[in-house]
Design brief:
This protein is mainly α and 448 residues long. It has helices spanning 10-13, 18-25, 33-64, 69-97, 101-117, 131-168, 174-201, 205-226, 239-247, 249-254, 256-275, 279-286, 292-317, 319-339, 343-370, 377-407, 425-432, 435-446; strands at 410-413, 416-419. It has 18 helices and two strands. Strands 1-2 form a two-stranded antiparallel sheet. The two termini are 33 Å apart.
């Protein structure tokens, strides 16, 4: 099933041009049913686990440990750093091995166990006299566990699985594949909202985390039978050498299309992280929408359909032509969310926002795969993680937290005023997107 390529010497493999990589990968056969099944199942469950980490873990901390938005921002930033380091090292390691399957399977199993462990973290009862110390201890524990979970999750999903998808696709079908992959987070959110949100409302966090952890672990076992390595030649250079290679200025100068595409992804990701960690709290506490799970379910279904259609349009019109319109839809949805208050308006605005966001991410993801050298798909995932995940997850949540603190919106819980996210997070996210056209113009001049 894989492509037989003669192993290249380290000196020449390191300088493989994107055009060569594209020419090589186009000889692969069309995607088969087994490959699609692996992409959807392993990708969906990975996004299910990330939904818990990126959204519901924030709600868990807000409800049970501390309502301070800076605690959420710190947790998100710490886990992003841990995830990036893991992706850099595991991605390069998978290139050196020439295999991804074992890393995916073992990583998902450990990922599920860590997810289930969140149910045992919290402020112990009967510690009222040591409330400050108990809260600090719980904050430290949840951040450490989040970092450990992110190491396994990123190594398995962001490094090995994402590299395997690059190994398995060609420029001709990446619009469809990344369009589907972009929808999986929305479907994961829909499943969580529809099947598990009641547990969080009832405060049954232990069962909530246990169910998601069990599904993730089972998927790790299934992935061993679903996924087949693609015969990518093992590299001979050391792991740290491969990591450093991707950060060298000379490498960046040789591949401006790859690195500028990743910078565009940085901007889109930062914009997303300004509001995503706080959006459920915003709907619950600021807008006071009791049926927010139903509203989000409608949004996610509509946005998923639009994103899948967008992936097919992307393959027809071209990725670079599709990018700016997708970003414009994202920005329009953010502006609309600023003024939406009633449920129908929120559904309409959020649909535009989510469809635009996922289509934008799908586009830059497909563009990144096209520019990835065939023998460095794993190492590139580490660079992608640094620029597309770590930086956005550090800058975005803290920017959102600063806006929330500055706006000083509050609600009363048991007679105590607590900070709550307000609509200001959405225009702030839209303002970040103004950098995208600038980077697109620079990329167009340097990449012919």
């Amino acid at each position: 099933m894989g492509l037989n390529i003669e192993p290249a010497a380290p000196s020449t493999a390191a300088s493989t041009a994107p055009s060569t990589a594209r020419a090589t990968r186009t000889t692969r056969p069309k995607l088969g049913g087994r490959t699609w099944l692996a992409i959807v199942v392993v990708g969906l469950v990975g996004q299910l686990a990330w939904t818990i980490e990126n959204m519901y873990l924030n709600v868990f901390v807000y409800d049970t440990i501390s309502p301070d938005p800076n605690v959420i921002a710190l947790m998100v930033a710490a886990s992003a750093v841990a995830a990036t380091v893991a992706t850099l090292l595991v991605g390069a390691w998978s290139d050196r091995l020439g295999r991804r399957r074992a890393i995916i399977a073992i990583g998902y199993i450990a990922w599920g166990i860590c997810t289930a462990a969140f149910g045992f973290v919290g402020v112990p009862s009967g510690t009222e006299t040591l409330a400050g110390a108990a809260v600090i201890g719980a904050i430290v524990a949840v951040i450490l566990l989040d970092c450990i979970m992110s190491v396994f999750g990123s190594g398995a999903n962001d490094a090995a699985f994402s590299a395997w998808v690059t190994d398995s696709t060609t420029p001709a079908n990446r619009g469809r594949v990344d369009g589907v992959l972009a929808v999986l987070p929305l479907i994961a959110m829909l499943l969580v909202f529809g099947l598990l949100d009641g547990l969080t409302r009832a405060g049954d966090w232990k069962l909530f985390f246990a169910l998601v952890g069990a599904v993730t672990t089972i998927t790790g076992v299934l992935s061993w039978f679903l996924i087949r390595d693609r015969g990518v030649p093992a590299r001979r250079d050391r792991i740290l050498t491969a990591v450093v290679h991707g950060l060298r200025p000379s490498t960046i100068r040789r591949q401006p299309g790859l690195y500028l595409t990743l910078l565009i992804w940085t901007v889109i990701g930062t914009s997303s992280q300004v509001f995503l960690p706080y959006v459920i709290i915003y709907l619950q506490r600021y807008l006071e929408i009791e049926s927010y799970a139903l509203a989000l379910g409608i949004v996610l279904i509509l946005a998923s359909v639009l994103s899948i259609i967008g992936g097919r349009v992307m393959d027809r019109v071209g990725k670079t032509r599709f990018l700016l319109p997708a970003v414009a839809v994202f920005a329009l949805g953010l502006i609309a969310m600023t003024f939406a208050r009633e449920v129908p308006a929120v559904i309409g605005a959020a649909t535009l926002m989510m469809a635009g966001m996922m289509s934008s991410i799908a586009t830059v993801s497909a563009m990144t795969r096209d520019a990835t050298p065939a023998d460095r798909a794993g190492a590139v995932q580490g660079i992608r993680m640094m620029l597309a995940v770590m930086i956005p997850m550090i800058v975005g949540p803290f920017l959102g937290a600063a806006v929330i603190s500055g706006a000083s919106h509050t609600y009363t819980n048991l007679g105590v005023l607590q900070p709550v996210p307000g609509p200001e997070i959405f225009p702030t996210a839209a303002a970040v997107l103004l950098l995208v056209p600038v980077l697109v113009a620079i990329r167009a001049k340097l990449v012919r």
